[in-house]
Amino acid sequence: xxxxxxxxxxxxxxxxxxxxxxxxxxxxxxxxxxxxxxxxxxxxxxxxxxxxxxxxxxxxxxxxxxxxxxxxxxxxxxxxxxxxxxxxxxxxxxxxxxxxxxxxxxxxx
Length: 109
What we know:
Structural class: alpha/beta
CATH topology: Glutaredoxin
Helix content: 25-40%
Strand order of the largest sheet: 1-3-2-4-5
Radius of gyration: 12 Å
CATH class: Alpha Beta
Largest sheet: 5 strands, mixed
Order of helices and strands: EHEHEHEEH
CATH superfamily: Glutaredoxin
Number of helices: 4
Number of domains: 1
């Protein structure tokens, strides 16, 4: 993770994501997940590129099972885009950087 990516947990998720205006990209992942490891650097790059426009956070599903269940994360990696605290888009599995950026651009409109 880089300085633009926030670690999200069962404890801080509501205050960090659900009560914040704007777009928040949340990456649900686990350390043992191969595709998650491939997506991680892409999420970090996006966090840097969209700094000031989009907030980015990561949820370790092994340590935060309540959140994974609340958002029905059955497969990882899973990215949920929140807009003004509400989920507006979900994509599961490895995504290219361009695909993620396209979904962010759509949410920013």
